[in-house]
Amino acid sequence: MGAEWWFWPLFLFFFTLLIGIISPVSGVGGGVLYVPLATVLTPFNVDFIRGAGLVMAVTSALTSVPYLVRKGLANIRLFAVIAPIMVITSVLGGMAGLWVTNAFPSGKYYVKLLLGIIILLVFFIMLLSKKLEFPEVKDEEIDSWSKKLGIFGEWYEPSLERIVHYRIKNLPIGVFMFGVIGFVAGMFGLGAGWANVPLLNMIMGAPIKVATATSMLIITANAPAIGIYLAKGAVLPVVIVPSILGITIGARIGAKIAEIIKPAFVRWLVIGVLFLAGILNIIKGLEGLGVLPHII
To answer: Phi and psi of 227, rounded to 5°?
Structure first.
């Protein structure tokens, strides 16, 4: 691999430590940055990276979620509605991802290119949208599902020095879209945070800090897809072990930062992470298709 045997485990530890800190603050999980960056920076096969990416996303979520739930930022009722559909679609996505890799060597690059374009589209929508920190949901906008299930919440916002109340809208649309997101998350090992936060925030009206925290909770629903990669031998200990250690420590730090950080900063961090992830996926897709030389 061009380096001492201990170099890559050590590199992965510090690399995932940084990703772990960013994940709870941005709500995008560990996989959305881990997969495209690790593919570029390490010599490991893409299947091992995708398997590890899914583990990273779920690990960062499981580590930070208990703290976020205690603080009232992660909405458990909303998670209970979304989780069942995501469990099913993430497993199907994991199966599809491994099938595409084996059956169509260039197919994964087309899908990676498309994913990058979609992420950049979400980036531009969030960049141009307003009132993302504390969206106002009017009474007439609340759907019947949200009313019957009592999906609302509150938390203490340190930057405002008061309790903030919020409500949710468009729950039926959200459930369908989360099913699609789960499939994509399982297929690429990215986790689902890259789409969770914009959907919760812009479509369903959750404040940005609630959207990022609840996104981390929703990412845990991708856990069953890990079994698909494990069954196919796409989980390599030399990659997984240091990565889990790094992201576990980082996510604990990030969860505490997420509580006290200003909502406006969270919004710009999410936007920045989406931009980086989108660009990296497009570049890797074009490189794989031979359109671009290997520039990263």
So the answer is: -60, -30
